[in-house]
Amino acid sequence: MSALEAMMPPVQKASVNGVELAYYEVGPRGQGVPIIFCHGFPELAFSWRHQLKACEAAGQWAIAPDQRGYGLSSKPDAVDAYDIDQLTADMAGLLDHLGVEKAIFCGHDWGGIVVWQMPLIHPDRVAGVIGLNTPFMPRAPADPIAIMRARFGPDMYIVWFQNPDEPEAVLGADTSRTMAFFMRKPAAQPVTVQPDASGSTFAFKDLLRNWDGVTGGDPLLTPDELAVFAEAFRAGSFFGPVSWYRNFTRTWERAETLPTRIDGLPCLMITAELDAVLPPSAADHMAGFIGDLETVMVAGSGHWTQQEKPDEVNALILGWLDRRFPT
């Protein structure tokens, strides 16, 4: 039995918004407000295995989908099929499939961008929002890819992802190695990200190519858990996941007509002390844009917080749900 089968509830499928989403569900369907867990890059619904288990034990209805392009869900072959309108419409469609009007959306990494956009694009489908590591980000004053290119250089991973084909080839050359490179705990000594030869920071392609398999933090996953991620990206490729990033400019253009604040919704922001990409300071501005916001920090955690510090994350989420959505 694989770790996916052993650690997750049975997979289900939903036809929504022109794609088929695989999802995993626990708790009493139809009772209370459900929580939808949205994963990031390069992850899966499997990333929420610890939270699903905790929700089930607490009697909380919870669902974690493989989002489009990932895992067992559909993988459209057009880049613009992965823009924010499609990603949020998938979540609204999942609610339709479940027969529910509103849900609490909890997102990590890229999933955090999706859940913070849900109340702006589909306000009638959102009961609350939980951001894990990823803060609410107001619309940038200019194209975010141009800003990142100027600030971090051409090989910064989000800028590099705009190139066709090469990112998929590099990441997909050895998915076990790629996932082992990403899925690590923070290094024992804080690492300052320095520019590479091109002048770029966060140049993951060069860091991955030159990685000795040992340097950096300790492995985050067991071999069986790592195999779930490696096999999923081996079978499904990185085109869909990387294409989420290829829509940054499109999403920025779309946001010109959207609200700029989130009011009337309870929101929770969970930061991670040692996240090098999304540090706690990245959330400092949020109180100016969200009317009902609580912010907490998980000490000692790197980027993969729900997998690295599951007990702490579970306690924060379930405690907040008990207070803000009592049964």
Tell me the name of the CATH homologous superfamily: Alpha/Beta hydrolase fold, catalytic domain
Quaternary structure type: single chain
Structural class given helices, strands, pairing? Answer: alpha/beta
DSSP strand tally: 8
Order of helices and strands: HEEEHEHEHEHHHHHHHHEEHH
- The proportion of residues in beta strands is 5-15%
Question: Could you estimate the helical fraction of the residues in percent?
Answer: 25-40%
Discrete helix count: 14
CATH topology: Rossmann fold
Task: Output the radius of gyration.
Answer: 19 Å
Overall number of domains: 1
Average pLDDT number = 95
Shape: globular
Q: How many angstroms does the end-to-end distance come to?
A: 36 Å
Topology:
Layout: H1 3-7, E1 11-16, E2 19-26, E3 35-38, H2 49-58, E4 62-66, H3 84-98, E5 103-108, H4 110-121, E6 126-132, H5 144-152, H6 157-160, H7 166-172, H8 175-182, H9 204-210, H10 223-236, H11 239-245, H12 248-254, E7 267-272, E8 293-298, H13 305-308, H14 310-324
Can you describe what's shown?
The protein is α/β, with parallel strands linked by helices. It is 38% helix and 15% strand. The longest helix has 15 residues, at 84-98. The model has no long low-confidence stretch (mean pLDDT 95).
